[in-house]
Structures are given as structure tokens and as C-alpha cells.
Amino acid sequence: MKAACLFYNQKTYLGPTIFMVLQIGLHVWAYKEFLLYYYIFGPLMFASCGLYFIVRIKDPGTIPIVKVEIPLENNQIEVQIENNVKREVLNAQANDESNGQISLDQFKDGPDNDNTIQKYYPEQQQQQQADNQHILSGRGMLSSPSSEQAKINTPNKQTCISTSNAVSPPILAAEKRFCMQCLNEQPMRAKHCQYCKKCIPMFDHHCPWIGICIGEKNKLIFLIYLFVQIAQLIVGIRISVQNIGLLVVMGIIVILLITLFGFHAFYVAKNITTWEYLSWKRISYIDQNSRYPFDKGVINNIRLLIQISCQTQIYEWQLQSQ
Question: Is 207 noted as a catalytic residue in this protein?
């Protein structure tokens, strides 16, 4: 029942797969003399349908709620924002901007993936502080420069963030970002999907054909589904040689699927996602001189994809040493 509601609420239509199953299935029934292709095509057809539902239901990955810790001069405070808190809570304005208070309405989206947080300072405070006196700055990364304070007043609680010239390094590295939609820390290679309404680890793309995001936990099964779908259509073309209309339709679909599978095979070989490949100029952890920072070789990349698809925890990505 839950799976049925999921299909209905997200308006996922099974038209492409159901159409191919019905059309080719009826055609196979009409040409039973092709026994060899019939017994090959039948399992492929059911496997393709089963894989479609598996990819559709399988979770691409869930990022756990984490705490954001910022080092202080005397002690440390913890800022914990839970995922289920509505975003409207963060729209509270500070009462006194002259004391360094900020308004979260003035956060601006950054070039990475709409998750950059920018600190606002009044003009009189900017004249007195150095250029590095930002609590939240850069391309979505946290830093801990000066002793400036910021307060965020919400109906439920008041959070005070204070930093100073402490010796300890920042807790969050450059690849750590904060998602203002999910109100959660965003690990490297993750991106918020506006259709799924959540952050997807190792975000690849949102597939309109299936109606779900392709991410860390379902990318492998998605590639298997593409391969089986291609094999099914190739066998179906051999059976449907006498139906010109169906032959043309299946031929076009096969060409598109082979092209799509080829691109994803290249991405797997280089350990890069579709989003990273298309938006590499806007991603902070991808160097313009080295567009494949996670490449460990073809065999190791395939082995790593199988490993992260089978494990339950979110994989912690690390940049390769240059």
C-alpha cells in the first residue's frame, strides 16, 4: 500500500515499460514459431519489468542528521538542527543588526549546488572587521576566523554562534556544505533534488523515465536495468521484423538506451556522476586541471561502485592526492 501511494503521489507513470511489454508480448504470442527468441525474450521481458520496480522503490540513499560543531576560544557549543524542522523557522529576523546579528533571509545561493551560506554584516561592522571575519563564507564551507558573534532567534530556541582566532582547525572541511532545504550538513558529492525534496548522496541525476533520483545506493541496479532493457529490445527487434512500425519505434529506443548506457559506463569508469560532469565548473572540489578527482582506475572504480551499493552506510568520499 505504501509503495502504491508512493507511485501515485509522485505521479510516476509506468507507460514506457508497460507499452513495450504489451506490444512486444502480444507480438511474441502471435509468432510462436520463433521458439528460441520466445524463450529468450520472455525472461528478459519479466526481468526488465522487475528491475524497473526495484529501481523505482530502492532508496538512492539517506543522509543522516548530524551536528555542526564550531571551535571556540574558551569552550565549544553545538548547533544541532534537525531535518524535520520546517524552513519557515529560519526566516526569523534578528532584533539588533548593530550587534552583529544576522537574518537567514539574506543567505544567498552559491555556485556549487544552491547550498552556500553567506554571513551578513552591517556597514559599520564591516569597516571595523578584517576581510576574513566571516563565520559562514566561501563555497558552502565553514570557517572559524574572528570573535564575531551571530544570533539566530527562532520560536523554539535561540542559537548563538561565536568564533575566535582559535588554534584548532575548522571541524568542517571545504567539501562540507549545509543544505538550507533539508537543514542538514551535506557530505561531499551530495546534492539536493528539488523533485525528491531531499539531499541525495552521490547524486547522479533525477530520472524522469523512472521518476526517482539515481544516487549512491541505486546506481548499480539502474545500470543493470538499462543493460537488460537493451538486451530485451534487441531480441524484440529480431522477432518484430515483419512489423515495420514497431520495428522503427524499438530501433529508436534502442539507440537512445545504448547512448545513455555508454555515457554512464564512461562515468563509472572515471568515477564521476552526471551532475559532476555537466556542472564541474561550479563544484568546488573539482579542479579545472583534474576533472576526475575520485578516479582510482577502471577496475577499482567498478569494485567501489559495487561496494557502496551493497553497504548501508553513506560512503565518505576523499579527494585523491595530487
Answer: yes
How would you class 321 by CB atoms within 10 Å of its CB: exposed for 0-12, middle for 13-18, buried for 19 or more? exposed
Contact at 8 Å (CB) between 217 and 18?
no
Q: Are 293 and 285 in contact (CB under 8 A)?
A: yes
d(CA 140, CA 150) in angstroms, rounded, equals 17
pLDDT at 104: 39
pTM: 0.60
Report how far residue 272's alpha carbon sits from residue 295's, in angstroms, rounded to the nearest whole number. 8
Q: Which long-range contacts (CB under 8 A, 24 or more apart) does 52-59 make?
A: 52/14, 52/17, 52/210, 52/225, 54/221, 54/225, 55/210, 55/212, 55/218, 55/221, 55/222, 55/225, 56/7, 56/12, 56/210, 56/211, 56/212, 57/3, 57/6, 58/217, 58/218, 58/221, 59/217, 59/218
Cβ density class 100-132: b for 16+ within 10 Å, e for less:
bbbebeebeebebbbbbbbbbbeeeeeeebeee
Single-letter amino acid code for the residue at 57: I
12-38 pLDDT, tens per residue? Answer: 445 555 665 665 665 556 555 555 566
Which residue of the set 5, 160, 196, 207 is catalytic? 207
Q: What is the DSSP string of 24-88?
A: HHHHHHH-TT-HHHHHHHHHHHHHHHHHHHHHHHS----PPP--EEE--SS--EEE---TTS-GG
